[in-house]
Amino acid sequence: MNANGRTRAPLLVAAALALLAAGPLGLDGGPAAEAKESVQGKAKTSKTKARKTRTKSVLCRLQKPQKFLKRRTFVRKGVLNPKKHAKAVRYLAEHYGHVETEETRRHNPESAYSHATTVRFMGLPISIHEKIAPALHCVEKRIRKTCRRKASRYTPRAVGGFRTANSYRGAEISNHLFGIAIDIDPDRNPCCGCVDPWPTSPLCQEKKRSAYERTALSRCWIRAFERYGFDWLGHDELEDTMHFEFLGNPDRIRAN
Question: What is the Cα 60 distance to its own chain's centre?
């Protein structure tokens, strides 16, 4: 989800599902992974034109999220480090496109949303940046292969990706605007440091030792995302357990 602040609002489930329903409104190197996935979908520009993406077998590299792109690198105890944040935003704009701000337009004349593509993740449609589609497909392949035990299985009911409205307050920019962030079932995977209704929900009020105990997602799912360059914001001070964002090198996703 990645939003901050602590204003009160009711109805956790209704708000969570409404957030996802809004949809668009709303390191380098490493060994090659063994997972292959057929990638296909439709990419939509901001003018609602569509083009087909070629179907091909994809072999993904194993890579870690780049540290300087992680939110906890430039936000500490709710305080934004402008210099570190600007470095991260510049990298994202250069690699994915601008997000309708003067700062990001200086780094890339093309909009990130013009590179939106709709793919299916675990049977559900989701709009993301076309560059990260292969990585998401490799995540799904990994989940289907390794998360079969009862304790590891999870069936998502709602997923959210691209947005064109910033969900952060202040100068911070949500990675949903770049199309590299994914939310999974906000009603089951809370963001306890975000705006209400999550902080006041029972899921956040209970004392837990870690974010892993607050989320319905299994560690197997979380590891599958992290294997291919995604960062889980459950590790962040927000404890945004629904939220994954691709922070690897988009030019190093494909190993073939």
Answer: 18
